[in-house]
Amino acid sequence: MNKKASYFSLEVFLKDRPEYKNSNVELYLSEEIKDDFTDLLQDRRYVEKFRIRLHYILKRKYSRNHYEKLKEYKDITEIKFKDKNNIRIYCKEYKTKDKVQIVIMAKLVKKKSQDINKKLKKLIEPIHLTNYELKKETNKEDQ
Predict the structure, then answer these.
(1) Torsions phi, psi for 64 (to 5 deg)
(2) Among 16, 68, 93, 137, which is least packed by CB within 10 angstroms?
(3) Residue 20 in contact with residue 58, Cβ under 8 Å?
(4) Which residues pair with 91 in a beta bridge?
(5) Which DSSP symbol is given to 63?
(6) What is the mean pLDDT of residues 25-54?
């Protein structure tokens, strides 16, 4: 199965964090969740929470509370927003031949429990099996 994912520029989130400028991690956003993710970031609280999670992603560190690898799938990670909405963003993660870490934000879910039940597994399994066509365009406005 093939899906499209677009490069997600981190400049807005990291303009005051020059230490991440040369990170070998690239973040992509699946076309499937683009609207939901944009809606999520309309809430300023989530912007700050996302910025904290970016630290873990860009440093390639895992944390039970923010960014965690799933035991069931070695290439799936979970960005966690533990609050009343209990939002999770499931990501596909892999390295290229050039040793660049690719993280594709693939599925946004409001979890009802901490466990990964059968219903959630049905949502995660396709991420594991999907190949993503990565689109890395830069806006002329960003340059």
Answers:
(1) -55, -30
(2) 16
(3) yes
(4) 77, 105
(5) B
(6) 94
